[in-house]
């Protein structure tokens, strides 16, 4: 033997061994009985052993043939299991984890565009304010706010974060006009209590704005930005929110900015994947699409998408 596995001949052999008939094997494999006979003769010649005893209407495995049949059937079963596993992974949804606020206020409103481009890719958005373990929780892509680094993970910068005050047009009409940041003393300040340590809060914005007559402490607390923004939309006060999470509401007039001053956050949104999965086609497509969305929204500068693994 030359070391090359005669896979076609072994497949024909397995069918013959299972049926005990060259003719039935030919019917199953949709080839001629003559082709089956040639495969078996070639395999016997290569192995230098007789695999079947031939009779008029049937064949029977020899001892060597029986030994080979057991191994081939086990091998083909293992190959089939591997193929089924890969096919199952291919058909499985792309699992994306992201904090609730960014999911609801930025990702989900844009997701239809990805589905339009890649209708065969199923997306499962798992919104959670608690970071997921990508390996343990079987997560394909995580969009995470933080400083990094993220050792052991494939990391792509998505966009930087800036904080901006927002309120409803109705609240501005009722309590405005606001000509100086100190005028915010007339309204309720809304707080996001799950902001990361060192992320700008009302204290930081007011200090940057020179609003020394506004007490930053009073006002209701909310467990995430989404709820704080919902309260702002309902005329309940002024929220200090991530710009990406309110840009759609600002664009359609549901929210307004009482002051143009923004404060930068030391944290950025990043796209994370396990290194061994980062080059999978659907993960590359989703990563590239996220960057396109961030660029289209003016949240990130244009980049060479090929450099980050775009399909």
What features would you describe in this structure?
- By secondary structure, this protein is an alpha/beta fold.
- The protein is 42% helix and 18% strand.
- The chain has helices at 7-19, 22-29, 33-47, 63-91, 100-117, 169-175, 202-209, 225-233, 243-251, 281-296; strands at 52-54, 59-61, 94-98, 123-127, 141-146, 154-166, 189-192, 221-222, 238-242, 263-273.
- The protein has an 8-stranded mixed sheet with strand order 4-3-5-10-6-9-7-8, with helices on both faces. It has a two-stranded antiparallel ribbon with strand order 1-2.
- Helix 1 packs across helix 3.
- The longest helix has 29 residues, at 63-91.
- The two termini are 42 Å apart.
- Mean pLDDT is 89; it is low at 305-310.
List the helices and strands and how they pair.
Blueprint: H1 7-19, H2 22-29, H3 33-47, E1 52-54, E2 59-61, H4 63-91, E3 94-98, H5 100-117, E4 123-127, E5 141-146, E6 154-166, H6 169-175, E7 189-192, H7 202-209, E8 221-222, H8 225-233, E9 238-242, H9 243-251, E10 263-273, H10 281-296
Parallel strand pairs: 3-4, 3-5, 7-8, 7-9
Antiparallel strand pairs: 1-2, 5-10, 6-9, 6-10
Helix pairs in contact: 1-2, 1-3, 1-4, 2-3, 5-9
Fraction in beta strands? 15-25%
Structural category is alpha/beta
Q: Provide the low-confidence segments as ranges.
A: 305-310
Distance between the termini: 42 Å
Supply Rg: 32 Å
Quick check: average pLDDT? 89
- Spatially, the strands of the biggest sheet line up as 4-3-5-10-6-9-7-8
Give the beta-strand count: 10
Bulk shape = rod-shaped
Helix content: 40-55%
Number of helices: 10
Q: Element order, helices and strands?
A: HHHEEHEHEEEHEHEHEHEH
Instruction: Determine the oligomeric state from the structure.
Output: single chain
Which sheet architecture does the biggest sheet show?
Answer: 8 strands, mixed
């Amino acid at each position: 033997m030359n070391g090359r596995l005669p896979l076609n001949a072994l497949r024909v052999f397995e069918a013959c061994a299972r049926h005990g008939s060259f003719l039935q094997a030919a019917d199953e494999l949709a080839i001629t009985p003559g082709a089956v006979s040639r495969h078996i003769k070639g395999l016997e010649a290569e192995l230098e052993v007789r695999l079947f005893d031939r009779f008029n209407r049937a064949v029977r495995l020899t001892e060597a043939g029986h030994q080979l049949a057991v191994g081939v059937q086990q091998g083909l079963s293992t190959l089939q299991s591997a193929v089924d596993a890969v096919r199952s992974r291919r058909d499985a949804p792309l699992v994306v984890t992201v904090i609730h606020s960014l999911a609801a206020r930025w990702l989900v409103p844009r997701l239809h565009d990805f589905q339009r481009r890649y209708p065969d890719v199923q997306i499962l958005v798992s919104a959670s304010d608690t970071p997921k373990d990508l390996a343990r929780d079987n997560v394909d892509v995580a969009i995470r706010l933080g400083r990094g680094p993220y050792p052991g993970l494939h990391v792509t910068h998505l966009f930087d974060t800036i904080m901006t005050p927002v309120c409803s047009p109705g609240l501005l009409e009722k309590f405005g006009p606001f000509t100086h940041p100190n005028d915010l003393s007339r309204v309720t300040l809304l707080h996001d209590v799950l902001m990361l340590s060192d992320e700008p809060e009302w204290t930081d914005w007011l200090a940057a704005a020179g609003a020394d007559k506004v007490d930053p402490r009073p006002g209701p607390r909310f467990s995430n930005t989404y709820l704080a923004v919902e309260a702002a939309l309902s005329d309940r006060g002024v929220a200090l929110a991530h710009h990406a999470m309110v840009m759609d509401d600002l664009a359609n007039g549901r929210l307004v900015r009482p002051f143009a001053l923004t404060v930068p956050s030391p944290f950025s949104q990043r796209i994370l994947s396990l290194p061994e999965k980062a080059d999978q086609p659907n993960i590359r497509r989703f990563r590239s699409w996220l960057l396109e969305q961030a660029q289209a929204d003016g949240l990130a500068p244009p980049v060479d998408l090929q450099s980050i693994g775009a399909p």
